[in-house]
Amino acid sequence: MTLLEWLRSRHAVKWAVAGGLAVLVIGLIWGGWALWKTRYEAQGSIALTQARALAAQSQAPGASPEARQRAEKALQDVIAEYPRLSSVGQAAYLLGSLRFANAQYASARAAFEIARDKAGSPTLGALAALDVGYSWEAEKNYPEAEKAYQSAISSAGPKSFLYEEAMLDIARVQDLGGKREAAVETYQRLLKDLPDSRRAEEFRSRMASLQTTPKPR
């Protein structure tokens, strides 16, 4: 073996060892992350299960205000301590529902917005977006409610399971907000998009009512 060949072989061995070490380090990092993620999800899931149980207790007949407060705190703790939990959107949605039921509309909306942004599924995200609208509507802020309902179906078509409900919500707040012509147009769009809906006659009735009833002065 010549000196050049020997140097080349040593160089090849050196790079092989370096490559093996790099693979080992990457494997250790990946394994450590996977272990941490598994533990994190397990601990977060346990905390969420406990919070759900408290929430169910707080909704039972005769439940005390303290029970509701404990449930809210447990859900808040899940959101704060496990912000990367795959089901953190569910915790936020449940927290928003508890607050909404207690007429805490602004704080309910904040929770629904977290649920919408961190939803683990399109369904939960759409439901949370609608509930953002309901919280605005409960405060009689019809323009913001309309925006929220529009947002809920911004990327959905007539085949979406929430499309019909969201469009009815839009028409309702348009009417409540004094935008009767816009409400009529929304019902017309519903009839065009969903001509075979079981609620088609309801759409026509509401539209006719808006068109025949004198506008309030």
Describe the structure.
This protein has helices spanning 3-58, 65-81, 88-101, 105-117, 122-138, 142-152, 163-176, 180-193, 200-212. The protein is mostly helical and 217 residues long. Among the domains are: 65-144; 153-217.
What would the average pLDDT be, to the nearest integer? 83
What's the count of strands?
0
Helical segment count: 9
Helix content: over 70%
Structural Rg: 27 Å
Contiguous uncertain segments of 5+ residues:
none
SSE ordering: HHHHHHHHH
Characterize the overall form: elongated
- For the report, how would you describe the main beta sheet? none
Q: What structural category do the secondary elements indicate?
A: mainly alpha
Please give the structural blueprint:
Layout: H1 3-58, H2 65-81, H3 88-101, H4 105-117, H5 122-138, H6 142-152, H7 163-176, H8 180-193, H9 200-212
Features:
mainly alpha
Summary of the model, kept short:
The protein is an all-alpha fold and 217 residues long.
